[in-house]
Amino acid sequence: MRGFRNLISLTYGQKLSLVAAIPLIVAVAAIAFFVAYEARATAEREIQALERRLVEAKKIELRNYVTQARNGFAYIYGRASPEDQAAKTLVTQILSAMIYGKDGFFFVYDYEGNNLVSPRQTEFINRNWVGLTDSDGTPVVDEFIRLARQGAGWHSFMWQKPSTGEEAQMIAYVVGLQDWRWVVGTGVFIDDIVATVANARAEVEARVQRTFLYIGGIVLAAVLIVFASGMLLNFRERRLADAKLKELTQRVFDAQEEERGRVARELHDGISQILVGVRYALDNARRRLSRGDDEGARVPLDKGIENLGSAITEVRRISRDLRPGVLDDLGLGPALKALTDDFRERTGIETEFSTVVFRNRLDQDSKIALYRIAQEALTNIERHSGATHVTIDLRGHKKGATMRITDNGHGLPNGPDRVSTGIGLRNMQERIEQLDGSLRILSSRGARGGTVIEASLPLSHLLSPQEEDATPKRKAGS
User: Fold this and answer.
1) If you write DSSP's letter for every residue of 304-323 in order, what string do you get?
2) Side-chain half-sphere of 19: how many Cα atoms within 13 Å?
């Protein structure tokens, strides 16, 4: 079973090729079906037209035969009375002698159904055939009499061929001798027409099958080309993806190392210095206490307590930079408010933050992404912009959520500093793209320059009221 699953499991490239090939196969199959249907329909119409033309030619031929035969005895029939048996006998002799081809002959029935002339099938003579039907149940003699009473007409039925004894389709033409109450007619077998039509249909079917084979070959070649192109494209894309993955992995490592270096510098330059001062103050107080100078020990102890408070504040700041607890507890708005307040106090840059009431509607990934983008933007503003005023605006709307960061600095740099800011901007871009959002950056240099960073997230990242109400419950249970 596992081997079967492995057999039917497909790689991404194979799935891509399959997805590309299936519509092609379906479309070509539909085209092939339509072409075959239209070819068969057109050929059938042509075959039926051919059959009608051939049958009409046979009918004209039969009518000519009957007309010639009637002309042959017209001088006798025209002068004889209805009771002239000698004339009737002479006419039957004339008609009995009129045979043509292998199976052609004339037949005569009276209106009562008695056969008077049948030179190739003499067993029919002097017998009554009223009610005679062919193998398909089609009336024969009764229909002859009906047509003769009307004057003339054609009739098609199955009849035994005198030459072979096999049954075949016959078309007969009869006329009525009303004075003698006779049916005079002849027939011709149309098995040659049936064979011609059957051969035409067989040829059409063979052409359709050849068309299907041609289309199948074209489809197979197209599928192979699509599959090969898909494999080539997949191989190329995989190589590019591997290269991008390696680059991204290296950037992740670089970012981790940079963050570790930053934390290490802050610990060394900030907390470490403060803790050294605390240790020096405590050591000084210990020496003074050992000499019994309680009053002298008070000053270094107070200094140590003050430095220890500064160390606690610094640890909290570093912890907040790494992962602000207010983001999880109160949401994105309060976290950004705390971030801008700290930025204002630390840098002296006038910073404003405004937002609508979000009620913690953004999902967790979106909150983290927007917070990190704001953090990265403020870092770049502090280091590179020279701005004196920064505004951050966060609001939701019918299309999703948008955060807009604006400063009045001198715009994005064009020199060596662009490398560091470019990495920060690229990090912002990747964060927002992972959430199917968009990042716009507008910048101009000069006296009235400045930079605008606008990050937008789609509506899919806003939680519904039910999910919003359920989120605190999940946190409380975890």
Assistant:
1) HHHHHHHHHHHHHHHHHHHS
2) 8
* DSSP conformation letters of 411-431: -S-SSTHHHHHHHHHHHHHHH
Is this prediction's pTM over 0.70? Answer: no
Q: Please state which of the ranges 9-13, 72-76, 435-439 shows the lowest mean pLDDT.
A: 9-13
DSSP helix/strand/coil, 455: strand
- Return d(Cα 177, Cα 89) in angstroms, integer: 15
Token reading at 193: 């027409």
Question: Would you say 77 and 87 are in contact if contact means Cβ atoms under 8 Å apart?
Answer: yes
Exposure of 126 in the CB half-sphere (CA atoms within 13 A): 2
Distance CA 145, CA 134 (A): 16
**Confidence class of residue 419 from pLDDT cuts 50, 70 and 90?**
very low
- CA 140 to each of CA 29, 65, 147, 185: distance values in angstroms, whole numbers, following the listed order: 49, 20, 11, 12
Joined together, the tokens standing for residue 239 give 């190589």
Give the model confidence (pLDDT) of 420-447 as tens digits.
455 677 778 888 888 888 888 887 766 5
- Contact between 385 and 409 (Cβ < 8 Å): yes
Helix ranges (H only) for 273-416 are: 273-290, 294-322, 325-329, 332-347, 364-380
Compute the radius of gyration of the chain from its Cα atoms.
Answer: 53
What amino acid occupies position 177?
Answer: L
The b/e string for 121-145 (b: 16+ C-beta within 10 A; e otherwise) is eeebbeeebeebebeeeebbbebbb
3-state secondary structure (DSSP) of residue 188:
strand
> First and final CA of the chain: distance in angstroms?
40
For residue 267, give the DSSP letter.
I
Tell me how many degrees the CA angle 170-138-161 measures, rounded to the nearest 5: 30
Stretch (H or E) spanning 236 = helix 191-266
Q: What's the rounded mean pLDDT across residues 35-60? A: 81
Q: What does the pLDDT look like over 20-32, one tens digit per residue? A: 667 777 777 788 7
Q: Which of 375, 338, 376 is closest to 355 using CA atoms?
A: 338
Spatial distance between the Cα atoms of 347 and 353, rounded to a whole number of angstroms: 16
Is residue 59 within 8 Å of 173, Cβ to Cβ?
Answer: yes
- Higher pLDDT, residue 415 or 157: 157
Nearest to 471 by CA among 435, 45, 145, 463: 463
Closest CA to 444 of 392, 404, 409: 409
